[in-house]
Write a structure and sequence with these properties.
The structure is a homodimer.
Chain A (H helix, E strand, L loop, with lengths): L10 E6 L5 E2 L5 E2 L2 E8 L9 E5 L25 E2 L4 E2 L4 E5 L31 H14 L7 E5 L1 H12 L6 E5 L7 H15 L17 H15 L2 H8 L17 H16 L2 H13 L6 H7 L5 E7 L7 H13 L4 E6 L15 H9 L1
């Protein structure tokens, strides 16, 4: 039986400084970059067993196991652990919080060394390559020069894809789940509405809401409620909630009454405590602009790539649907890269990548074996 | 060739008064109901050529032709006119604004005769039957006791369905396009987010925003931007906008840049001028609770119905998808009613019912002929 990685803790590393700034792809630089990360398993003497896990939009470094005193397992605990697909008996797993985030890694709420105040909207817009550059610095910090595999779902998968483009020799295997090589206009549209909700909240204060002792919670809640609908499937909402209501018959109200409404309220509320609105703006925008195969250098960089790709989509995922995975695979194929592409059956929509639909974990395990 | 109904004007009728109040299905009553409506074509001497048109969520009475001095044709001008499917050379067309609306018919912003102030949130929650009761009073006002046909798309179709349930002898033919006999939990979820956006706007003021000289425009804009995405298809956004942007390359911004973002901004902004937030709350909630076949009386009422039904859905409509039209048809079939059901091919999503995808107008015309 597969088990738990046990108790883990989040560590920190400083990966950029005034002497060694992170120069950003779009211009500008960050003079101080700190990264929160966790590791599971043991690094082999040959340093050749590293699996790097990238989280999705609102994830964090805590991917597996338990924090002392806390009850909640890491967000990918079903995937990572002894005997699990990302087998910690065999692999040394590295899981950082991403650049631009709000869970320990430098982001828009971090202090700008140049001013002594939080960056807020002065934080630079990030390119996927900037996130990858920080991941690569973290690997150097850990004394590792090559990944046995990079693994990620959604935005996590896109970071892995960019890593292969930026440094194909560093990634032996790439596992991309429910990812995309270019968002659809519909996808961009949903994120645009989320940003509108946050930025038009009177408590947004031009991004300097913390100074005002508030957060744009109304807008952030609406943004998350809407986004959450797009992460699940109509079918899963039907199965989970159907038309169950609190009230009976014609006793109607404008307030939440249907079970699905209470569920969305809960999703929106809990999001406020765990995520920062500015990070949400920056990371959704990073996704909108992600389009690596539009870059003329991408084909050249991938020309000699030997990375093996596994690309997986889920049939009920309408936010990052199979067409997007197929396009990704086709773009790689044009660069001469073979891709093991599969659409799996799952009723759970985009969130399937966090769950265990039939065949999914087996597929990842087989690819990593 | 089919033509224009020409210049038309919106008329008003008072259909309920203290002496003859509208008693509501859920309890309570309205002591004054005024309806805005338009008519096109001529009522036949036998009064047997009436086609009643019901509009969707944010429509109004102006379905066809032009208002003097205005350039914009009615919202269903492609469907209604001489030689068009709803042929005004042959039919007398009646098109009212619905109860609870904000375009001339009594709604939440109307004056409550009991207080002399606008109802706002004291306006009663409406049942689909209440809207139908007002339609029926309008017909009586016009001296008509029976419809040649009732025609409507989306919420419009649902009003027609309820009409047949409430008074099957009054409707000879029912044309239901992109409608539903019960919203999906996903549908309810989207409307719940829209209401959250409006009601959490600080300018909502418990619904009494007009008194405060404001409107909850931020929330209302977000609500509409989101809803608009659900009215079109991913494919239509791809075709219309693709990945076109204002800026070039890595010149990135959090502000709208992609064409699809500008489009949504425009949709959100123009909605503010033409629709009231309270009407939006009331009418979306009416839709959530619409579930006529859950009512044990419905089967009994439809037992002797002779109404012929035409039910049409569109393959790219994911807000009111074919599964919902199919369920509607099956529920009618269980009551012994034959339904001409078809799914048409159209790339335009839910909005297809307002457009002219191949076969659609021909299908409606044939049914009404």
């Amino acid at each position: 039986m597969s088990g738990l990685v046990g108790y883990v803790e989040t560590r920190r590393a400083v990966l950029a400084s005034t002497a060694d700034p992170l120069v950003l792809r779009g211009g500008g630089r960050l003079d101080h970059v700190e990264v929160a990360y966790e590791t599971y398993g043991e690094l082999s003497p040959a340093r050749d067993n590293v699996v790097f896990v990238c989280h999705a939009l609102t994830g964090d470094a805590h991917a597996a196991g338990l924090h002392l005193g806390a009850k909640k397992r890491g967000w990918w605990d079903n995937m990572i652990g002894p005997g699990k697909p990302v087998d910690t008996d065999r692999f040394f797993v590295v899981s950082p919080n991403l650049l631009g985030g709000c869970s320990g890694t430098t982001g828009p709420q971090s202090i700008d060394p140049a001013t002594g105040s939080p960056y807020c909207l002065d934080f630079p817009l990030l390119h996927m390559s900037d996130l990858v550059a920080v991941h690569r610095r973290l690997m150097a910090h850990l004394g590792v020069s090559r990944l046995y595999a990079g693994v990620g779902g959604s935005l996590g998968g896109m970071q892995i894809l960019q890593w292969v483009i930026d440094a194909p020799e560093e990634v032996e295997r790439a596992v991309l789940v429910a990812a995309s090589s270019r968002l659809s206009p519909e996808n961009i549209a949903f994120s645009a509405v989320a940003r509108e909700a946050i930025m038009s909240d009177p408590d947004f204060h031009g991004g300097r809401y913390v100074e005002h002792g508030v957060t744009p919670r109304r807008g952030q809640k609406v943004a998350r409620m809407m986004a959450h609908i797009t992460y699940v499937s109509g079918q899963s909402l039907e199965t989970k909630f159907g038309h169950r209501r609190d009230r009976i018959g014609d006793d109607w109200t404008l307030a939440p009454d249907y079970a699905v409404e209470h569920y969305l309220q809960h999703q929106g509320e809990t999001f406020l405590d765990r995520f920062d609105a500015l990070s949400y703006l920056y990371l959704t925008r990073l996704l909108d602009y992600f389009d690596p195969f539009a870059d003329p250098w991408t084909h050249q960089r991938l020309a000699d790539a030997r990375t093996r790709f596994q690309v997986t989509s889920f049939d009920s995922d309408w936010r990052f649907d199979t067409a997007q995975s197929r396009r990704l695979a086709e773009c790689l194929a044009e660069c001469g890269i073979d891709v093991d592409l599969a659409e799996l059956t799952s009723p759970h929509g985009h969130d399937s990548f966090l769950l265990e639909p039939p065949g999914y974990h087996e597929r990842v395990a087989a690819f990593l074996a």
